[in-house]
Amino acid sequence: MARNGYKILDSDMHVFEPHDLYLKYMNPRWGERVPRGVPRKKHGQIRFTYADGKPIRPSGVQALSTATPKPVAGEASPGEDGVAHRYAKPFRRDYDAVSQIEAMDVEGLDVAVLFRTFPLHCDDSLEAEYANDLCRAWNNWMADFCQADPKRLRPSALITLHDVDLAVDETRRAITELGAIGLCLVPEPANGRHIHDRYYDPVWREAEKLGVPVCFHPAANPNTDQVVHRFKGHANEVVLINAFRNPLELMLAVGSFCAGGVLERFPRLRVAFLEGNCSWLPWALYRLDERWELRKDYANEPLSMRPSDHFLRQCFISVDVEEHLVADVIKRIGDDNVVISTDYPHADSHWPDAVNHFMKIEMPSASRRKILWDNCARLYGVN
Questions:
Q1: C-alpha span between 339 and 377 (Å, rounded)
Q2: Element (H, E) at 249
Q3: How many whole angstroms separate alpha carbon 294 and alpha carbon 226?
Q4: Could you tell me how far CA 167 lies from the centroid of its own chain?
Q5: How far, in whole angstroms, is CA 164 from its chain's centroid?
Q6: Quick check: helix, strand or coil at residue 214?
Q7: pTM for the predicted model, two decimal places
Q8: pLDDT tens, position by position, 78-110
Q9: Coil, strand or helix: which one is 366?
Q10: Are 93 and 99 in contact (CB under 8 A)?
Q11: Which of 72, 88, 205, 299 has the fewest CB atoms within 10 Å around its CB?
Q12: Cα–Cα dist 186/178, whole Å
């Protein structure tokens, strides 16, 4: 397509799941615990419940405290109604694969790697088999979704860390049988285990062996240990939680992988940190390097190089399309590790003008080319 002379690969384009996804794709042994929703009547994500109507876990406005104003009745996630007019056409097709391709055409995207909107498995209270089957159902649906145009629609695979053996099995199945080209995980601890715990090494080893990237993407309101839970029920939680959740969780994930020993053990593993800005990265790497230099003699997981060197060798981070501070990131760490996403079809996406926003940011054309295509293609192994 080559918009303005640039090929474009969206590293983290989202989908809106259909209301009957799990009824069609999930193992029926779970009976009334199989998630289901009602057909959407307007733009927005589906609220999935059990058969008795209880939410799988609260999402969007459901997760806000009773003290938080809810000015738009029936709005699933804050801000959705305000942008609904932009999504009238994909809404009429219920955000199916055809509408996804049409949305890519409007934005000028050549290829998109597709990610979930609201993952249901992010709950420490769920038994491992149930959480894994939620992921299996989504992965099966996504594989079918991408068949509408397998060259342009490329699937990611949901992986839960409730149980490491199940995670390895689903990683292998999703990549070798379903054609997924990346793994989507949340960076938060699972049942008290941080992502750099050696318990999870088999997952990273399998991803390295299969040559697919591990992509960390925080979840909204998980029933897990998440930094911004401290703001729940307090003044302006809707602003504070949304502002800090993704950047802080990704910052901690960068620390876990670059300074916690994971990338030392898996030097060929590719890792992406998505939808949490990139402007904080130079400071975070500086801070990790400084602490490593001061404390490396006390580290029980020795590193052969600085945390920043691990990042630059193996990691990628996504820039928001209007994030002008990316120019400083390029100045400080270079342009080889930055990828981009439109965040379609979420309330804070700038679709159908997301790429136009990015084109307005001043940077060398060679850097823009890398961010729009080269780095994304290298991350996912796309030719």
A1: 9
A2: helix 237-258
A3: 28
A4: 17
A5: 20
A6: strand
A7: 0.95
A8: 889 999 999 999 999 999 999 999 999 999 999
A9: helix
A10: yes
A11: 88
A12: 21
